[in-house]
Amino acid sequence: MTTAQRLTLFLMMAPAILWLGVLIVLPHVEILILSFSERVAPRVYQFGFGNYLEFFTEPLYWRTFARTAIMSILVTAITLVLAFPIALYIARVAQGRVKAMLLLLCLLPFWVSELVRTLGWMMLLRETGIISYMLRMTGLADQPVELLYNDGAVILGLVYGGLLFMIVPLANALESLDPSVVEAGYDLGGSRWTVLRRIVVPHAMPGIVAGSIIVFMLTVGNFATPVLLGGKNGLWFTEQIYAQFITRFNWPQGAAFGMLLLLLSSAIVWAGLRLTRQGLGTTLRQA
Amino acid sequence: MNRPPLLWKFYIAAFYIFLFAPLVAVAVFAFNASPFPSPPWRGFTLEWFTGTAAVFGKPGVLQDPIWLTTIGNSLKVALPVALLAVVIGTVNAWLLERAQFPGKTFLAMMMLWPLVIPGVVLGISILAFFSRVANTLEDWLQMDLDPLRPGLSLVVLGQLSFILSISTLIIAARLRKFDRSLEEAAFDLGASRARVLRTITLPFLRPALVGAGLVALLMSFENFNTTLMLVGSDAPLPITMYGQMREGATPAINAVSLLVMLAVGGIASLFALTSKSQS
Amino acid sequence: MASSNDLDIVRVTKQFGAHFAVNDVTFSVAPGEFFSILGPSGCGKTTLMRMIAGFENPTSGDIRIRDKSMIGVPANRRPVNMVFQSLALFPMMSVGENVAYGMTCRGVGRAEADERATRMLERVGLKGFGDRQVTALSGGQRQRVAIARCLVLEPTLVLLDEPLGALDLKLREHMKIELKQLQGTFNTTFAYITHDQSEALVMSDRIAVMNQGRFEQVGNPRELYHNPGTPFVASFVGETNRWQGAVSAGSNGAVTVRLPSGVSLHGQGQAVAGDALCFARPEAIALASDAAGLSALSNRFEGRVSAVLFDGANSSLLIDTPGFGQPVRAVLPQAGALAGINVGAPIHLGWSSDAMKVFAA
């Protein structure tokens, strides 16, 4: 390599190095260090595990953490179950224009801001909202019904937000299934159910894993949906991070929570990839 | 898989109703002549778009300085983000597809990494790091460094941290399809390196550059999690909407949402068109 | 030493690590000549071509165009233009813009460039195609645009890197003739690389056969075909029968080779002892229904037809002949009693000693 070529390469690498260094790596080093610093006196900090101990000793914190993790898994599972028939229909039954239309219609709501979608659910679900109004009009209820501010509403909103990210990888994976394999399955005496379970689902596995990982990541890291649809009962872990950082201005505690959330999210991604022996790159590209 | 069962078709229909119900609700009630965004229907009005405070005591979107400023703030963030995402994304794509250097696979992995970090974590880490940098530099230089404090400039950096991954992926995918003999042919016909870039390589990449720019624009406009942690006193649109939704809002918020939907629909169809001509 | 050649390659070597892609190659191309480099893929011909174009630098040696060394001259400053294997037409430009591209790079004004491009398109038979998109052209038309794009710059030398490779067989046959005619009308020097011996034989004034980075032989198509200098050339250029044996007697160019089966063959060559390779063209194998018809030939055998490979004028027979490991290939006569011969028929075959080349193995 000549000097000029070296210089070009160096100049071209500079933006990437700056981006990854200044916006990703160093900030994460910063919150890692921050999470291990304890306040011993005003403006005086020292190294310690206090913030993590606080997490384990204060039930609100670890319960919110566990609740977030469990509900995210639940949301991922529900999303998968709801999305599978749709993806299967788009990939294997619908043809030509109908297929393109169905896929496009799936995409449309997700180009719209998360907050607009959440606003829509709030309008539908709240006490003075559309569903409550319609229930009273049809005589199914005699007084306003509050459907907002409970776990059901939170799960509904999160599932809604995750659907697209499940349907697209699933449909892509199912697309590549050779129809003759399915026909052979029936031909060899398989029932609809066994063919689905033994042939279609295993074939869709890469899509299932990719979709589940993405939906889980998005759900765990979500903030607006649980806060707005769950209200006081939302209790999402990101809310704790926000509270520590912005409301209470206890950055070391917030940093520790941030590290824990990152750990949870990374662990699930890693486990998912290991379980099915897939690469991160290919998985993300499928999405 | 012969004839799909009726139940399945019924499910598909129900699913699409479910998918569009909230959006339709938002859109319809933007035109409701009522001070609250909820039923019953009190007649059609455009007050929530163009009205002054005369009728309902609160102004419509296009007359309300709060909404106009917040849309302006969003643009102040989205335009630089889109521009930088395209420029730096192109340089990154070149690194990934053309350059040879040790540690390239590692760098490629690192470029994907931001996509698996929760947005809130990206936000707090950048907030914490830049505060430390600002504190250190201010002590040393004895001057204020506001761009490093929460505010629109920090929001731009925070959004770039993950949008760059996406723009890099989009542009690199296009560059991978480029037949390098086109560049050699142009060079062989007497073009300088700069001319080859201007007349051959960039025109070939154009659909991807436009696409990456539009996607960056959309993602920036809609980003909430990272922005929330880095925002100062000037709030972009999602932050203002969030605030209003917590406090209870007028149908003006529906009007804003409808405008956003239309704008996003426009940008999305532009993107769909460019990606179609790309293949 | 002044040279009147358009291109002089002087002891050029290109090394990639320990591998010699091009190994000490020297040749010259005269003005107006159609020169081909023929070799199997991986023989180094593409590397050689890319060095002439300026995309690679030789490890050692000199490349001279009209007696000016090109070492250190970048590709965009060489009086050489290349037609790429993929043609590399610019998809974002119209046909006319493709042809005008090189001129605008050289600072020719827009109007003049357009006008010259239009005239060039006319000369290659694409009148009125200027505004079309290159994607809307047929394979043969794209070919002509690629060549027009080079010729319009009036280069000293046009390099062609297997430009017919992507075409289907029929069009390829047609383009061979068209390319040769084009080169004749423009009287431009062409350097053509290919792995297809038929392309090289049909079009070239001279051919260099290349193998493993070296030139095996340089000569006109007839020389290469009838007097191959090496076993590689003998087997690579044209169809041939090939037998391996040991020299049993040799003097003054006449060689006798004994095959493993004990059969003796009489041929021409410089081999005097040891293992030898014998080559005889299928068209040199004379056929007869009885031994008397072949009595003048020094190699005479009897066999049985094992296959008739009918392909019009290129039809041939495979003849199982005792003493030969593989069936002997002979041209099927187009007329006469043998034209209708069938599998299984007994047949007499023979060839003169002049028709068989013998090389030391």
Q: Care to describe what's here?
A:
The complex is a heterotrimer of chains A (287), B (279) and C (361). Chain A is mainly alpha-helical. Chain A is built from 13 helices and two strands, in the order H-E-E-H-H-H-H-H-H-H-H-H-H-H-H. In chain A, strand 1 (37-41) and strand 2 (44-47) form a beta hairpin. The two termini of chain A are 38 Å apart. The relative contact order of chain A is 0.12. Chain B has one domain: MetI-like fold (Orthogonal Bundle), CATH 1.10.3720. In chain C, helix 2 crosses helix 3 and helix 2 packs parallel to helix 4 (139-151). The mean pLDDT of chain C is 90. At the A-B interface, helix 1, helix 3, helix 4, helix 5 and helix 10 of A face helix 1, helix 3, helix 4, helix 5 and helix 6 of B. Chain A: Keywords: Cell membrane, Membrane, Transmembrane, Transmembrane helix, Transport.
Mean pLDDT of chain A: 84
Tell me, rounded to a whole number, the average pLDDT of chain C: 90
The CATH architecture term of the largest domain in chain C is 3-Layer(aba) Sandwich
Tell me the structural class of chain C: alpha+beta
Q: How much helicity do the residues of chain C have?
A: 10-25%
Helical run tally of chain A? 13
The helix fraction of chain A, in percent, is over 70%
The total beta strand count of chain A reads: 2
Specify the CATH architecture of chain A. Answer: Orthogonal Bundle
Number of domains of chain A: 1
Terminal CA distance of chain A: 38 Å
Classify the oligomer: heterotrimer
Rg result of chain C = 25 Å
H/E element string of chain A? Answer: HEEHHHHHHHHHHHH
Number of helices of chain C: 8
Query: CATH homologous superfamily of chain A?
Result: MetI-like
CA radius of gyration of chain A is 24 Å
- Which of globular, elongated, flat, extended, rod-shaped describes the shape of chain C? elongated
Subcellular location (chain B): Cell membrane
Keywords (chain B): Cell membrane, Membrane, Transmembrane, Transmembrane helix, Transport
Family (chain B): Belongs to the binding-protein-dependent transport system permease family. CysTW subfamily.
Organism (chain B): Microvirga brassicacearum
